[in-house]
């Protein structure tokens, strides 16, 4: 069983109605008018946000580096009669697939922090700035590692889901913080229920330690002028030392 199938099982474990009800109003309120707005969804996964935004009348383009995720996103869009342009790419080569400008670019789910280096982060943010129209906005979400490192947070709550083949999966996630470095290792353990026994899969992901005092100068250098930080999608005040979540809205 592939890691993509396990990833889809994890996607199935998410309460998408609750999540979209929380996140979509924040995104839509960034736009003067959602209808006919051009939106790019980076690292779109199975396309839940893309489909919801398309239902508001936006013209949505979306990509992910997983072929199976894009396949599932296309199927989900077809079920909801959503016209979305999907393509397979990673953030470092997305500009090769884009030939128009956008009113809004979103990158959710801590995806930006999965880039390998801060140089790559700055490159991608510069590309985002270049493909936005004047007054366009970039919204991204990441974990706030200033709070995570101060609190010593490591272990996420356990979750469970089901693969496309019907196998039950239990997920465990925890951080291994690397002393003296600018990244942490995210250890993903998946326990798959097979016909008789449980099978264990382990995957490591390097996660850059995003902090406000690191990301804000990059946004400024790449040309963004209005930069706001929030701790949630209700626009609660962001506190570097106590907010676990970091929602960033930057305007060109």
Describe this entry's structure for a reader.
This protein has 252 residues and is of the alpha/beta class. It folds into two domains: 3-144 and 210-251, Vaccinia Virus protein VP39 (Rossmann fold); 147-208. The protein has seven helices and eleven strands. The strands form two sheets. Strands 3-2-1-4-5-11-10 form a seven-stranded mixed β-sheet, with helices on both faces. It has a four-stranded antiparallel β-sheet with strand order 6-7-8-9. The longest helix is centred in the middle third of the chain and has 14 residues, at 118-131. The protein starts with a helix and ends with a strand.
Keywords for this entry:
252 residues, alpha/beta, Rossmann fold, seven-stranded mixed beta sheet, four-stranded antiparallel beta sheet, 7 helices, 11 strands, 30% helix, globular
Mean pLDDT: 93
Q: What is the CA–CA distance across the termini?
A: 43 Å
Gyration radius, rounded? 18 Å
Strand content: 25-35%
Task: Report helical residue fraction.
Answer: 25-40%
Morphology call: globular
What is the domain total for the residues? 2
Layout of secondary structure:
Blueprint: H1 3-12, H2 16-28, E1 38-42, H3 48-55, E2 59-64, H4 67-79, E3 84-88, E4 102-107, H5 118-131, E5 132-143, H6 145-151, E6 159-162, E7 168-177, E8 183-193, E9 198-208, H7 212-221, E10 226-230, E11 245-251
Helix pairs in contact: 2-3
Concise synopsis of the structure shown:
The chain is of the alpha/beta class. The protein is built from seven helices and eleven strands.
